[in-house]
């Protein structure tokens, strides 16, 4: 127990009524001995959890505040409630709280905790019942058996029925612990006749029958006591546990089979790293302790529900005085347990050093190399004192050919297929059968894991075994050859997969670790840069699919530098530059380097006559130019793409380029031309059958969302909303996160302008989360800006304004020029919050920046927003506000943007009504309202109708 636990224990033990025993349900709690038992068996609790339980039981029925519990469990220490919740969660699990109707602990919201079980007080400690006194032939029951309770019960039941069970698993998985626990669980069943025989220290397999006879108390009178053993056991009901059979497996298997056949009352439980393969044997493969999945969002309480984490925490607590599982370190602990493959011995050895290194440093050490020499308990068997000893024990039992193949297989990172093993670890086609046979043997001996998946089967070396085998491989003559074969195999695999076949990419998505390892070798001092360049180019579709864009840029940059020295092909040059420009853009690096990369790729595609390649690259360049704010350049790029597409005669390519033309014209404020181009595109674009997969950066539903925006701008709000809703519905049905991240921001404007964000707000949180996961920095920030606008629309001003302002600042820092359009709602929100000067600065700067870049589509609305700011400032300037509104009206009318014209007219009418200029307001607003043929239930048209009614000299107005 650590020093802090000792102090807290003393504090509780010295309270009144510390003596005696508390009884509740099947439990007995002895404060003096600091022991809790369930049906006579000890229950493992941390010292602090014990103290918390003791306080609650002593005050059963009363609510104990969280602060009081923390003061008792952590006297003099400053801790948060999270630590208390972790220990209460551990308590609930240890007591089985909530299972089979048992209920002991209750959480009282906002107050604390209460023990609600029925408690009896025994004045003097009563002896707890024990299952048997006949455990002389068994090792002591292990103190900590974590996550194996169900397994122990199942094996015990199986053993009583089937008589012969072998527990199989790799070293350190806990076979002996489970076997001993099963023995104790069945000791009454066999009236104490349970014998445990450890074969691990036997050096000569021929001695197994002799040592077995001696353990059972039989005199050895012949060279082979098997006959007398069979006769002795023939009518005896007994459980014989044969532990650690793998190194004497032939002799042990023969003995076990004969005894099983000739002694019908004998039950045999064996443990081995491979099957005995004899008559009567039933196998129980011991799985690793369950740990959290890689993508789990862990907190301390949720992490403790995984047995691997529970074991880690218990071992770390006993290993030192400064470990606490917290929300902050839960993910690191989960990662460690996952990296250790859920192997209890590896977890215990690693956890025992956490107090010396700390969690963060331990994770770093594990990332760099497995420390195979970390020592465990001195009382452990020699083969369990270090990870190295555990693995060497199994490794030394392999044949020479098995060792060679195991070492070669360590070149693989994570899983690999049989085909991969044959190609890399074999010695040619004639060696295929040898590889297959050897792999099967290594799986049987628990050195390699096997998973038969629905699509393809995979093999995998546990990380600890792989680290050991890698050392051997590095010291052998095979190291260079294996690295070269490994890289060549994955190059061939990727080239055979193709560029953008999604189903094929999904099939090899789990091979990113192998590809990363191959690339690392290729660009090392001993590597092959020519293969590295080809491998990097072939890896592009997979890296993009997995959204490993930052890492992809690393390999692309290294490959581009190596192009000259490797005399790389034009196609590699094209692929590398095109992907680098795209990856930089998607990760928020909005700069001319990306433009240059894409221009070079387009030129190379033109050089080799790759028209589809040119079309795709032009789409990416166009989007990057929009991001940067080179709107005139973007229009020129779209026209260039249209000319190429027309020459090719590909109607789909022509349609794509006309979508780009429509977007460019819209940004430049030419709404009529934008409508013309989008209608021309829709004549040829088949959204159901066109292929927008892979790295194509056009929005999959880009044509429809572009049309929706144009419809709203031209004064068709109902058609715009219907089109936008249908498009978003189609996008959601696709269940493609990338598509959602591209489409929703483009459609958002329609819902915002109509004042109806409910249609898309429900999807904003998902957009933000998916963009963050996919490393789409710009789209994530745009999503956060839209979320801020939505919050402002629900009058959640504080958080909404902060989110919108932060997002705009981030976009501006990344030189995202279209962020100017977001400055209008930001400036208006700041003005409402009495930050008029700041609002005016922001909108003035946005208008200037937009004018410089020729970003005209939102200019009418920015001028309207500036007028609203001027009318809300402390020193209000109605004259300048009116000038801005008149300018906005003229520009919107010139652009053909009736939607913006109405928004501005509403602001101007309100100003004039405030000044008593009712007739002017009516005469200005009425013609604009009259040009609408739909959308009369939208917020803007309702507002216009109300203003017209107020401005009408008769006091009434009939809606059209």
Task: Describe this protein with a few key phrases.
960 residues, alpha/beta, Arc Repressor Mutant, subunit A, Rossmann fold, five-stranded antiparallel beta sheet, 16 strands, disordered N terminus
What's the name of the CATH homologous superfamily of the domain at 149-285? P-loop containing nucleotide triphosphate hydrolases
**Cα radius of gyration in angstroms:** 37 Å
Shape: globular
Query: What's the mean pLDDT score?
Result: 85
Which bin fits the share of residues in helices? 55-70%
Total strands: the figure is 16
- Biggest sheet layout: 5 strands, antiparallel
Q: Class by helix and strand content?
A: alpha/beta
Could you characterize what this model shows?
- The chain is α/β, with parallel strands linked by helices.
- Among the domains are: 3-122, Arc Repressor Mutant, subunit A (Orthogonal Bundle); 149-285, Rossmann fold (3-Layer(aba) Sandwich), CATH 3.40.50.300; 300-383; 398-476, Winged helix-like DNA-binding domain superfamily/Winged helix DNA-binding domain (Arc Repressor Mutant, subunit A, Orthogonal Bundle); 569-685, Serine Threonine Protein Phosphatase 5, Tetratricopeptide repeat (Alpha Horseshoe), CATH 1.25.40.10; 699-815, Alpha Horseshoe (Serine Threonine Protein Phosphatase 5, Tetratricopeptide repeat), CATH 1.25.40.
- Helix content is 59%, strand content 7%.
- It has 44 helices and 16 strands.
- The strands form 4 sheets. Strands 4-3-2-1-8 form a 5-stranded antiparallel sheet, covered by helices on one side.
- A hairpin with a 2-residue loop joins strand 3 (35-38) and strand 4 (41-42).
- Helix 23 (512-522) packs antiparallel against helix 24 (529-545), helix 24 crosses helix 26 and helix 32 packs antiparallel against helix 33 (717-734).
- The longest helix is centred in the middle third of the chain and has 19 residues, at 479-497.
- The chain is globular and about 120 Å long.
- It starts with a helix and ends in a 9-residue tail after the last helix.
- 48% of the residues are buried.
- Mean pLDDT is 85; it is low at 1-18, 124-134, 687-700 and 954-960.
